[in-house]
Design a protein that fits this description.
Layout: E1 13-16, H1 22-32, H2 38-50, E2 54-61, E3 64-76, E4 81-91, H3 100-114, E5 119-122, H4 129-137
Parallel strand pairs: 4-5
Antiparallel strand pairs: 1-2, 2-3, 3-4
Helix pairs in contact: 1-2
Organism: Lysobacter antibioticus
Domain N-acetyltransferase: 12-154
Keywords: Acyltransferase, Transferase
């Protein structure tokens, strides 16, 4: 991972993540701020691959992982249709500003349309203002909900 400049004739590709991608997934999650070991990544990839409602996609450039996106599709009782939630999106720092994030978003949107999904949602930490600008530039609008979290300890 981490090629800085793609060759001029190579376009990034997107594919489903495999167990063998665990080192790249761990590195990308760590860059996103969620430290993860290779073994933890193997377990996470396996869990997502077992559930057809989840997708974990990797972007590759010149044969090297350069980004990932994870999504989950579910039925929304309040909306009466399917919605897809993006649960993680990260592009390797060495591959910023090369269209990788947009490519990953568009692939999730394509899969959602194919599956009859009416809405794609993404949550982003309030401090990630660059990410907010990116989502706005990709056609996403601010939601009207506030997210609440309660950690359940032992």
């Amino acid at each position: 991972m981490g090629r800085i400049a793609p060759s001029s004739e190579t376009a990034p590709t997107v594919r489903l993540a495999e167990l063998g991608d665990a080192s790249d997934v761990a590195e990308l999650l760590s860059q996103l701020g969620y430290p993860c070991t290779r073994d933890e990544a193997i377990e996470r990839i396996a869990v997502l691959r077992e559930d057809p409602r989840h997708d974990l996609l990797l972007a590759e450039l010149d044969g090297h992982a350069c980004g990932l996106i994870a999504s989950h599709t579910r039925y929304s009782l309040t909306r009466g249709n399917l919605l897809t939630r993006i649960t993680a999106l990260v592009v390797a720092k060495s591959c910023y500003r090369q269209g990788i994030g947009r490519l990953l978003l568009r692939e999730v949107e394509r899969r959602a349309r194919r599956d009859g999904v009416g809405r794609v949602e993404v949550a982003s930490n309030i401090r990630r203002t660059d990410a907010h600008d990116f989502y706005h530039a990709c056609g996403y609008s601010d939601g009207s909900s506030v997210k609440f979290v309660k950690m359940l300890g032992d």
